Amino acid sequence: MARELSGISIAKSLELHLLQPLVTRDEVRVGCLRAREAHLATVCVWPAHVALAAAALAGSSTRVRAAVGFPFGQDTPNTKLAACDSALADGANELAIMLDHSALGAGGDPDVARAELDRVLGHAWWSALNSARGRADLTIVLETTMLDLDHVRPVLERLHDTSAGFLQTGSGHQPRAVTEQHVRSLREHLPADIAIVAVGGVATLDDAEALVAAGAVRVGSGNAVTIIGQERHAREVRDTPS
To answer: pLDDT tens digits for 125-143?
Structure first.
């Protein structure tokens, strides 16, 4: 059940994901314009579409986030770091970097996972500082709904007091939806200075509001513009005299 509308829009807690495997440039352009009109927080795009998104969103408050290493994280660290630099040069305001899950799950190597994370954190920090736009916000992405949080706790704790500002719950390409309980559990495992971006199976206003209430600061969805339409409709119904 959605909370009673407070007068404050959820728009700045929403991120539009334009990460379909066959998304076209026209779809990216139109999506960005709709996100701009809805005053969404961010639009997340493939690295190849960053320049297009940055041009469509220029002069607006909606930021561009580049999805690096998606959807499985198994590019080499060097490939990911090069993609970070390219995305920043093309106009990305934020970076979302997927870690290699073959090092994180059962049978993986925690030392390899920590080494990759350290390289990502260090490189993203300095490349962002050296970009024309200054420091970009950095999101580390893990398929947390598919992982044992206790098993990856050392990786999560390593995010404290680093260049990372966010931990994203997943790529949105896995079948398991993020839940309120998962966000609460992740909040307990994460350092206090790391915010949560909830992604995965978010289709409605009720879904988004529940995740924000559970502790997510941002909710990513391919349905973000539709969710804003649902919010507007709910306000119209509330404000219509009976």
So the answer is: 666 555 555 455 899 999 9
Domain covering 11-237: architecture:
Alpha-Beta Barrel (3.20)
List % helix, strand, coil for the chain (3-state, nearest 5): 45, 15, 40
Instruction: Using CB atoms within 10 Å of the CB of residue 140, give its burial: 0 to 12 exposed, 13 to 18 middle, 19+ buried.
Output: buried
pLDDT of 69-86, one tens digit each? 999 899 999 999 999 999
The Cα 71–Cα 141 span in angstroms is 10
Residue identified by tokens 């513009």 is 225
Residue 203 is given by DSSP the state -
Question: Chain-centre distance of CA 126, in angstroms?
Answer: 21
Q: Which two tokens stand for residue 211?
A: 């995740």
Distance from C-alpha of 226 to C-alpha of 37, rounded to nearest angstrom: 12
DSSP-assigned letters across all residues of 102-164: GGTSTT--HHHHHHHHHHHHHHHHHHHHHSTT-PPEEEEE--GGGS-TTTTHHHHHTTTTSSE
CA distances from residue 103 to 74, 83, 226 in whole angstroms, order as listed: 10, 21, 36
